[in-house]
Amino acid sequence: MSELDDIRDILGFEPCRGAPIDWEAASQALGATIPDDFRALINATGTGRIGYDTLLLRPFAVNANYDQIRCHHKRMRDLEVIWEDEEQNDPEDQSKPLIFNEPGVRPILWGRSGLGFYFYWVARDDTDSSKWQIAVEPARYGQWEIHPGTATNLLLRALRGDVTTLYLSSLRDAEQHFFTPAK
Fold this sequence. Notes:
Blueprint: H1 3-11, H2 23-30, H3 36-45, E1 48-50, E2 54-56, H4 68-86, E3 105-113, E4 118-124, E5 133-137, E6 145-147, H5 151-160, E7 179-181
Antiparallel strand pairs: 1-2, 1-7, 2-3, 3-4, 4-5, 5-6
């Protein structure tokens, strides 16, 4: 069984019947190739919510709250302002993970939570997107988490309770194990 099959078994979602996504246009809009596992996940689920508050973003979604491109660009503007304001603080009081100071490394948003968490790929120029790590930005204050593996791998491990995390523990609770398509 694949990770996607395991996620489907846990969440019980029906196959998506939405319009096909222009993944090449989406990759251009984000400035990087979207990983294949995420393409397969969104092609299977469509736009929607895991549990009560974890939103899977979809490129060019009709509902602006789920539009990955729009949400990504807005969040990048927000982070730019936050990180610029923090440059005057002592290093221990800055929220920007050091990994994003490396040349050719940047966050690309793929999901978010109503609790304020954001899910990113740690995109690296000249690195296959299937090899990117996953970053989780906490709601307020606290340290970002960097996780190995793909988006589907992290979601599956979180749903099973097999990931060490301060922020994603609610996903392991059985009452969060459902998928609601966006309207």
